[in-house]
Amino acid sequence: MTPTPDLAARKAAQRASALARRDGLYAGWRANASRVACRTLVDVLSGVPALRPVSAFLASRSEIDPAMAVRDLRRRGHRVGMPVVTGRGQPLVFRRLRAGDSLVKGVFGIAVPPETAPRVEPEVFIVPLAAFDRRGYRIGYGGGFYDRTLERARLRRQVLAIGFAFACQEIGEVVRESFDQPLDLIVTERGVIECRRGR
Fold first, then answer.
1. How far is it, in rounded angstroms, from Cα 21 to Cα 185?
2. Stated pTM of the model
3. Span 10-25, mean pLDDT?
């Protein structure tokens, strides 16, 4: 899952441009837009039975913050797992976010549930990203973790992958490769983008 130098450079440029736009957003605006997007995300997931496990993420840096949606999902009885990197070139594992658990520092300094937290096998993935297009392709942060994870999950069960980001992170067309896993939907503060068609 290593891109050619040319593709890697083009992806890096797309990533840098989208992240620069995201970083340039005023913090108060980001917080308000996160709340608006969370309400939309909750609406999208309102028909998902509470028995279906969901993955989410803890916002870092200037990322959109799904915390409000995560609280709602947990209140509705969903088992919510947070991504944990176990090694380079490996798919993610997901540990359940439980009340009372103290988060610990994981790989890349990202806070994760402790090793004592049970694992979750998500059927719905709320996916972070750096950039996206309307076909559902995304650029992450360069590790390929979500591509590996979604590929493996889709071989085993039916899943729904939802990108969660600010609208300014949209680009015309993501540089894609054969191993890139498309998203089914993208939710931003401007609404829902359906990505199932026109790939």
1. 21
2. 0.93
3. 96
